[in-house]
């Protein structure tokens, strides 16, 4: 395992270190250790954090299945085109609010403690999400959704707690578990929203007599989704312990030797505030933006933007007719392709990533993930050529909506099998890259924090980058896709344009990360312990 930097090293010195080894290998001294046994996971606290971590992804995705119908029921819309516009505004309001407050939550946690910050955010999250279920006008929905985003910006604080309760041997596995929790929350949110939206219409024999659900058809999924937040809040109140190393005691007349004695400081795992003193003032944002931290955050922003563009565009690309640069897939085929690729996430996050991170280091894993994912962007739009060829073989007068029940036994059966094999392979490539870059960037941001008192602020800056990407990525990719498929211009300005931009962003992210020092593989804030 890489030796921790000496305590006399300043954060800025990390940006002046030697260049790291290339993606394909490197000096053993810079990587994680493959011979150290992993410390057992602190499940008493990690379990609490996993429960808390489910709230944001569920809140983020639960409204997607019924968002269109909800907005269409408001008087503000006059045409289907208006529905799309107002639905986009309503969805992005969550991300905008979250981006505005993520940094604030992190800095508040650095000043007043992690536990109280998380519990306050969960309380507001619970109340505002239920308020959204009572929406009968666009203004009400917009305010409730925006307020929900304001209280959902504490993901960075949760990551800071994970970084503080972990050590270098088990931190990769703990971050992988947090990423797995996010993916589970996304699936749970979408399922709850789709199954329970407008329950009176979907299940009249069960909910037909409930006038409240008839008046507010989307209240039930919001209330069920809020149960996860409520569980996280209750468990947090009972079990979550403070992890921030707080400041010195008020008696400033102690000798210097006594002040440096760890026994005079509050234990980092003691819950409650009775034995705590306020932490030191948090460092300014500018002080945290060292050359190394700027490169880490810059590489992450490029990666977040590329993936936000892909997340929004893939379903549209898959559903677009092959003659226009898509695949012509039916909705069932799109869902099946995503499901098949997602199966690999569990193994990658719980087994493969922690082992490789301990053996090669977090930085190597990030660079490897970026270079693995980049080919997905450049190759995926090429499948449209094969889909169009299948249409021509079947003499389809109109674009054929390919589906899982497609022409397997026809003369295009071999080509159809090849199309699916290539598609699943590319989606698996993307999943591998996604797991490695997202888990690694979480670890890198934690590692570059100069002290444990700044972990929340660093994680907050990362969350701002994530939210900015979620806001701009879909808007940019949607606008460029609509223009490119009708431009009639040659490559790369045709239907490949958005994908080429996404792949270029991933390559650029790898290039920025290649300038990082190998010292980012270790947890610098551990010097506070």
Structure write-up:
This protein is mainly α and 529 residues long. It folds into two domains: 207 residues, Growth Hormone, Chain: A; 246 residues, Growth Hormone, Chain: A (Up-down Bundle), CATH 1.20.1250. It has 22 helices and no strands. The N terminus is likely disordered.
Taking the alpha carbons of the first and last residues, their distance comes to 18 Å
Following the backbone from N to C, one meets helices and strands in this order, namely HHHHHHHHHHHHHHHHHHHHHH
If you consult CATH, what is the topology of the largest domain?
A: Growth Hormone, Chain: A
* Mean pLDDT over the full residue set: 75
Strand content: under 5%
Structural class: mainly alpha
Shape: globular
Count of alpha and pi helical runs: 22
Look at the structure and give the CATH class of the largest domain: Mainly Alpha
Radius of gyration: 25 Å
Low-pLDDT runs of 5+ residues are 1-35, 248-282, 397-401
CATH homologous superfamily of the largest domain?
A: MFS general substrate transporter like domains
Biggest sheet features: none
Can you name the CATH architecture of the largest domain? Up-down Bundle
Helix proportion range: 55-70%
- How many E-type strands? 0
How many independent structural domains? 2
Entry keywords:
529 residues, mainly alpha, Growth Hormone, Chain: A, 2 domains, 22 helices, globular, transmembrane transporter activity, MFS_dom, Major facilitator superfamily (MFS) profile domain-containing protein, transmembrane helix
